[in-house]
Specification:
The protein is an alpha+beta fold and 446 residues long. It contains 12 helices and 18 strands. It has 3 domains: 267 residues, 3-Layer(aba) Sandwich (Protocatechuate 4,5-dioxygenase, Chain B); 101 residues, Glycoprotein, Type 4 Pilin; 72 residues, Dna Ligase, domain 1. The longest helix has 14 residues. The N and C termini lie close together (8 Å).
Length: 446
């Protein structure tokens, strides 16, 4: 796995309600754009944040190598809103070593306190609201690079491979000189020209409109986010990503400063073939919600040798923020083949899961499907034979039966796994339970 999206977000603290106290609604288009943006973002495993408010090192990408970040908005009179996040030094080292191969110089230092870095704090505030908890993050500043160097860095990043799902958050305001009351003065001959070029570059996924600006325009626009934008363009329009579309959600300058929100969904538009089971699950639900005829078998959607297997499965549907939207499965095969098992369970997960209202057609683009194909369950004598990362568990007592899939976030011990499965079945006395374990092959949309 590698990059799943890149996004542009502005970072004015006034957008945060506790700071703006009503003034944030003067930037209503931007607030709506951030809301639309974050509602479309799948939570990655690791998030690279480009902030122009990290240290400036000429000719170099500054990389914050802290393993833990924290900060508040105390600079703006608000101390009760805090951000915390973690990182991993080995991932920072791997990134720096990779960029060195492309002659991109990096300088790393550890700065845990983000209080003075609104370029990181403000976007992370909105992402935390959307996701509940932040993923592992890496913070860097491209402000020391030229626009062309930032673009080339983005192109290099496009080929960076990882076992994690990666995402790029390009933090940056645009011109600070767009109106007579703008904080950095007024440049009517240059600032609007700069804004128009950036929007055109994003919509066309090309740096050409920005390259056509002369140095005087770039200087007098008074921007802080151009390098972030250029890195996003490089990542999104690199050799492997040339088919990607960047969607601009909003662009305005209510306080004399340009704010733009934009998103490029990478892996889903790279032509990468999704695993056959999730292709079948998604197409089944798509047809269901369109009131179209359901597939009779998997070959109607995609051919696969898996369809001949006689196995049970679970179909899970989650929002891009990682919240469960539906999950239904079988512990023993109910259909004659796996493809028909997936079709039946996809229908049930989308409209018959009693924990959720039936899905609507509008939701389909904002959810992620996964299919877990189960091995045959085997009885075990005790809890020591379980491993929650490897095995799922079936807990039964009489006619009551509870199941929990393996490798679930927040389930770290066999004891937790058994307790949760038992509670799902309404089993509260664990003295007489029977245990079975099984493995799964997990297919997930990338």
């Amino acid at each position: 796995m590698s990059w799943i999206w890149s996004a542009l977000m502005p970072h004015p603290p006034v957008l945060i309600h506790e700071i703006g106290r009503g003034r944030e609604f003067e930037a209503k288009k931007t607030l709506n754009g951030i809301n639309e943006l974050t509602s479309n973002l799948e939570k990655p495993d690791s998030l690279l944040v480009l902030s122009p408010h990290q240290p400036y090192v000429p000719g170099v990408l500054f990389v914050n190598r802290a393993n833990f970040y924290h900060g508040s908005f105390a600079m703006f009179g608000v101390t009760n809103v805090r951000i915390t996040a973690s990182s991993q030094s080995q991932h920072i080292t791997a990134l720096c070593e990779y960029l060195a191969k492309f002659s991109i110089k990096t300088y790393a230092d550890s700065i845990e306190d983000l209080t003075q870095d609104q370029g990181s704090m403000v976007p992370l505030y909105f992402l935390k609201q959307a996701w509940g908890e932040l993923p592992e993050i890496i913070i860097a500043s491209p402000i020391g690079l030229t626009p062309k160097e930032a673009f080339e860095m983005g192109k290099a990043l496009a080929d960076f491979q990882s076992d994690k799902r990666l995402a790029l958050l390009a933090s940056g305001d645009l011109s600070h000189r767009l109106t007579q009351n703008a904080p950095a003065g007024y440049e009517p001959d240059y600032a609007p020209k700069f804004e128009a070029a950036v929007e055109e570059a994003l919509k066309n996924n090309s740096p050409k409109p920005i390259y056509e600006l002369d140095e005087n325009t770039l200087e007098r626009a008074g921007e802080c986010g151009l390098r972030s934008v250029m890195t996003m363009l490089g990542l999104s329009s690199g050799e492997e990503n040339e088919v990607n579309e960047i969607k601009v959600f909003s662009h305005e300058w209510p306080f004399g400063v340009g704010y733009c929100t934009a998103l490029c969904e990478l892996s889903r538009k790279l032509g990468k073939e999704q695993p056959a089971p999730v292709q079948l699950a998604r197409e089944t639900v798509k047809r269901l919600l369109e009131n179209a005829k359901l597939p009779d078998n998997g070959d109607e959607v995609v051919s696969s040798s898996l369809w001949s297997e006689h196995k049970s499965c679970f179909v899970s549907i989650k929002t891009k923020a990682g919240e469960l939207r539906g999950c239904i499965g079988t512990l023993s095969p109910m259909c004659e083949s796996l493809d028909k098992e997936i079709i039946a369970n996809a229908v049930s997960a989308s409209i018959h899961d009693p924990r959720f209202p039936p899905m609507t057609q509008d939701e389909l683009s904002s959810v992620i499907f996964s299919v877990d194909v189960l091995s045959k369950a085997e009885p075990i004598e005790n809890i020591q034979e379980l491993n929650p990362k490897k095995y799922g568990v079936i807990v039964s007592e009489g006619y009551r039966r509870g199941v929990l899939l393996p490798d679930l976030e927040g389930v770290d011990t066999a004891e937790q796994q058994v307790q949760i499965a038992a509670m799902k079945a309404g089993i509260y006395n664990l003295d007489k339970i029977k245990l079975e374990r099984f493995t799964v092959t997990r297919y997930k949309e990338i």
